[in-house]
Amino acid sequence: MMMLAGAAVIVAAVVIAAILVANRHSTPRPAATAGASATNTGTVPGASFVGVARLDPSTGTQARIPISLSSSKLPNSKAITTGGGFVWLVDTIEFARTTLYKISPQTNQVINTLPLRFRVGVAYGDGLVWTPPYSIHPGPGPLLGVDPRTVTISSQIDIPGPPGAEPGTFVPCCVAIAYGEGSVWALGADHVFRIDPKKHAVEKVIAVGGTGIAVGGGKVWILDAVLGRLFTIDPGTDEVGDAIALSGDPVAVAASADAVWVANKDGTLDRRLLNGSSGIETAKVGVRPTDVVEGDGSIWVACYGDGTVWRIDSVGLQTHRFHVGGHPTRVTVDPSGAWVVMEPASSAYR
Q: Fewer Cβ atoms within 10 Å of its own Cβ: the N or the C terminal residue of the chain?
């Protein structure tokens, strides 16, 4: 089912308004340098720590990698993922100046950076690090594929504007990006752009938009946090499923092989099984969740409000709480544990 035009306008208006507010109130960010190393391994980061915290869930020990991150004015100005044996962090200030950080899990150090512009989101797939522009017009640039070895741009893919759009028209895209089912999926306010990473081309523009995206269980999941709805895309046909109404105040979505998970602002995590069951199971997590991700057989939630990261067992919904301090806002997972973005205090997560 195609997303209603009215809903698309609302989502787009929210994105545009937030960007305008950000441009009025943003402050400069100190420059970061490669080679920043981990400090205070095994301690809990304090409220003043800014950077990336590495969490070993088997022991609870932590390593801190200090990075001079900007204070987010919008919830999606930071993103983190793993791939190619490294951790990749995107930090954007005023949705103009962007830095891509390459972090080594072997040394817990930033080993390279790449200055960019107009980026939001990061994903790894098919041997490249992908980061999209935050709008199609006027001129933020194409979707970029970065070579993980050299940390140089090796692919540039133009994202088309919607049919009938006037030249120079501001079209919000993108707000998030994901990789799965053999494709890169760039999410806009009213469209999803399916990209073939081998042909380096947009292969399909799908008429549904939102605020969050995840791939799992054989489907692409689109969260519309503005209207409290969830959509699916069938990767085999590119068809959009009927809207699924959500309760609460959703903020983020993740997907595993057998369920879709929605984190809510009230500190709850909802699980919907994909076996045809219509029931919803809920787990309690921390204060003001900001991100949820599936990894290594568990679900992970970052909670800005109380400085915690939660691991939820996909079977039984048993929860494990880790206090990292500060303001965790983004989380990703590799076999060694969780990597958590720690920001300065931000108005984006009220």
A: C
